[in-house]
Amino acid sequence: MIEKDGIVLSDSWFEALNICYNMALWYMKHGAWVSAKDEVKDSEAKTAHCCLKKAAGLFEFIKEKTDLLCGLDDFPGNDFNMNVIKSYLNQSVAEAQEIAIARAIELQHSPSLISKLATETARIYNEIDNLLEKFNPSTFEKWRCYAQLKNKFYLSYAYCYRGEALLAEDKCGEAVRSCKEGIKCYKEAQEICVK
């Protein structure tokens, strides 16, 4: 006889969340593929941004539902580890913000706005690096290197545009100092590229 109440099994949630995971990864990769051209049209940028937002939403859903899975904590660095899910979620958000920054630069928005967006994006990439540092370096080193590179790159953007905003306010000394910090971050990004 079939019971009135349904039975919740972690196996079915595992399968459902795996499908969501694969969809989220597809949206991330599709967004990257759409925006990987030299000249990205407005419609393509919107498509990429939308894909990355959908990926972030799916990772948020997965993050909320992982407590329904049992026994996965025994495997550090697995796909359903909370730090890995948060890293994917943060990467989706950060890559969507990269599109917003590129659009803001193209439309010549205020340098202080671009600086704030770049600072927030750098912070998110730094958080990804911090979330992944606990795991096996042989598995996660390239991902961490990517996050460190993006962190330094967007910090250099932030300092550069902050310097431009300060220069517009006739704060030349602070503008020069900010630009020097930007150059320092850019050189650190170059060193990461050599790794």
Structural features, described:
It is a single chain. With 195 residues, the protein is mainly alpha-helical. It has two domains: 8-108; 112-195. It has helices spanning 10-34, 42-65, 82-106, 111-132, 137-168, 172-194. Helix 3 (82-106) packs antiparallel against helix 4 (111-132) and helix 5 (137-168) packs antiparallel against helix 6 (172-194). It starts with 9 loop residues before the first helix and ends with a helix. 32% of the residues are buried. The mean pLDDT is 89. It comes from Panagrolaimus sp. ES5. This is BRO1 domain-containing protein.
Provide the fold topology.
Elements: H1 10-34, H2 42-65, H3 82-106, H4 111-132, H5 137-168, H6 172-194
Protein name: BRO1 domain-containing protein
SSE order in H/E notation? HHHHHH
Parts with pLDDT < 50 across at least 5 consecutive residues:
none
User: Helix amount, in percent?
Assistant: over 70%
Distance between the amino and carboxyl termini: 63 Å
Q: Please compute the radius of gyration using only Cα atoms.
A: 20 Å
- Number of helices, where a helix is a run of at least 4 consecutive DSSP H or I residues: 6
Beta percentage is under 5%
Number of spatially distinct domains: 2
User: What sort of overall outline do the alpha carbons produce when their principal axes are compared?
Assistant: globular
Largest sheet: none
Mean pLDDT: 89
